[in-house]
Design brief:
With 308 residues, this protein is mostly helical. It contains 13 helices and three strands.
Length: 308
């Protein structure tokens, strides 16, 4: 197997992720970049054929990612990026072994570094309400769209890609629910609060008809009548936060984190929150419980006479 053969195998693996695994386009693109980096590393070692790779080679690649290459202005990667890159490499070797291209999966025993757990950033309820109010302060169809967009993001805890990907028919007003399509094309039905439904109704009646210019099913439209992009939706939130005087760094994911944290603060079960967020594992959702525990500690430390 030469370099061209490895190129073709990488292409076959990426096609496998797309067609058979249903991986998101962004994920496949990231894996492609990671595997090109891996292939360049093998070339520098003089390794051409995949069957020349050993477990030690993969571990050496892991070290190189964490160390970087100052001589060639290649920075060291953060543990989270190293972990993602190694996952791509492990998947590739597993695929090569399953296809019979190589005899053994030499990467299966190599474990990625465990990244430091960072607490999600969330906003107080009052700050979220200020941002939502600020989104609808001006007049016109864009203001109605912006208010409906942010209300829906917070009401459902949705990812920004899920919301801008919505079509009008995905909103079920009668049952106060919305169909969200998450990572890997997985669908979930999430309830929608009355304020978000009211904002959506105002947008659909008085806002969207003024923006639409062709027969598009998209729910949220830009000024040209096409589907609103993620970048534009992000800017809607940033502008509303600035008008509201919320000075913290705010992103669409901040509203998602706030949604989860506020639910748990209100007594919601972590498994219910897991389903609402579309997490495949409850372990991913449990990081939000750390936020609420920290909040309890702060309240206890300031309120209890014998806390210190």
């Amino acid at each position: 197997m030469n370099r061209a053969d490895v190129d073709r195998l990488i292409g076959a693996y990426l096609d496998h992720l797309t067609v058979e695994r249903g991986s998101a386009a962004n994920t496949v693109a990231s894996y492609g970049r990671d595997l090109r980096r891996y292939q360049e590393f093998l070339s520098r070692l003089g390794v051409v054929a995949l069957d020349e790779v050993t477990e030690g080679t993969v571990r050496e690649f892991l070290v190189a990612l964490r160390r970087g290459d100052p001589d060639n202005e290649v920075p060291a990667l953060a543990d989270s990026s190293v972990a993602r890159t190694l996952i791509a490499v492990r998947g590739f070797h597993k695929f090569a072994a399953a296809e019979g291209v190589v005899a053994d999966d030499v990467a299966h025993a190599v474990r990625p570094p465990r990244p430091a757990q960072r607490l999600p950033k969330s906003l107080p309820v009052d700050d979220v309400l200020k941002i939502l109010d600020a989104a609808g302060q001006s007049e016109g169809p864009r203001a109605l769209r912006d208010r409906a967009l942010l209300e829906l993001l917070y009401s459902c805890g949705a990812r920004i890609s899920e919301v801008v990907g919505l079509d009008v028919d995905d909103i079920d007003v009668e049952h106060r629910a919305v169909v969200l399509r998450g990572k890997g094309g997985k669908e979930r039905i999430v309830p929608v609060g009355r304020p978000a439904l009211a904002a959506l109704d105002a947008y659909l009646v008085r806002g969207r008809p003024a923006l639409v210019k062709k027969g598009t099913p998209a729910l949220f439209l830009n000024i040209r009548g096409g589907r609103l992009s993620r970048q534009s939706a992000w800017q809607v939130l940033v502008d509303a936060a600035e008008r509201a005087g919320v000075t913290k760094d705010v992103s669409p994911h901040t509203l998602r984190h706030s949604f989860a944290t506020h639910l748990l603060d209100g007594g919601a079960d972590v498994r219910v929150v897991q389903e609402l967020l579309g997490h495949s594992s409850v372990t991913t959702t449990q990081v939000y419980t750390m936020v609420t525990v920290n909040t309890m500690r702060e309240v206890y430390a300031t309120a209890h006479p014998r806390a210190r």
